[in-house]
Amino acid sequence: MRVTVEKLKALNACLQQVRLFAELFPDGADVTEALCVAHADKFDWDWAARHLLPAPLLADYNAKRAPLLADYNAKRAPLWANYDAKRAALWTNYEAKRAPLLADYEAKRAALWTNYEAKRAPLLADYDAKRAPLLADYNAKRAPLLADYDAKCAPLVADYNPKCAPLWADYDAKRAALFGRLAEQNRCA
Q1: Which residue, of 56, 58, 144, 145, has the greatest Cβ tally within 10 A?
Q2: How many independent structural domains does the chain possess?
Q3: How far apart are CA 139 and CA 133, in angstroms?
């Protein structure tokens, strides 16, 4: 199989992988096992399999990849457990040192917040008192405009709804039939 930068771009490969491929293989490359092994740590092989292999080969790839992944996970598990145990002790130490700092911060912040709230309440009340007549004036001036708009739209809606109803019914019938066909195929598969 020959792979080129253009082919990867056409398949929407990620920009970083396309750039790396272009750097390593400016004229493209014929894919071989040796080439892939030589660049094993550079490319996303699962993406390549999904996008470059035909379905039967992709199925074979996935079947053969499964035990490799299981082996990797089995070997990684004790390493992760060791890391996680050591990390847990470090996290506990961090939390113990952080707790009094956070408590101090929260105590100081609470005083600031109380001061802010005390000053904010009368300012908000003044704002609300000054805004109320402005809003009432706006709503009073807007009401006839909205009523006129609604009156002019009513005949349009009355004309649109009867014309649209058969279209929706046709779409709904076709959609239901499509779902039914796919469900039957799934049952037969």
Answers
A1: 58
A2: 1
A3: 10
**What residues make up the domain containing 28?**
2-52
- Does any domain span residue 14? yes
**Residue 147 falls within a domain, yes or no?**
no
Conformational region of residue 55, where left means phi above 0, alpha means psi within -120 to 50, and beta covers everything else:
alpha
Mean pLDDT of the chain: 93
Q: Closest Cα partner for 173 from 163, 181, 161? A: 181
The answer as to whether 10 is a domain residue is yes
The percentage of residues in the chain with a pLDDT greater than 90, rounded to a whole number, is 83
Burial of 21 (0-12, 13-18, 19+ CB in 10 A): buried
Residue 124 binned pLDDT confidence (cut-offs 50, 70, 90)? very high
Give the residue carrying structure tokens 């660049």: 39
In a domain, 6, yes or no: yes
Residues found in the chain: 189
Beta carbons within 8 Å of 35's beta carbon, 6+ residues apart: 29
> Measuring CA to CA, which residue among 157, 176, 159, 158 is closest to residue 168?
176
Burial pattern 152-173, b for ≥16 Cβ within 10 A else e, equals eeeeeeeeeeeeeeeeeeeeee
29 has which bridge partners? 3
Is residue 165 within a helix (H) or strand (E), and if so which, with residue range?
Answer: helix 55-188
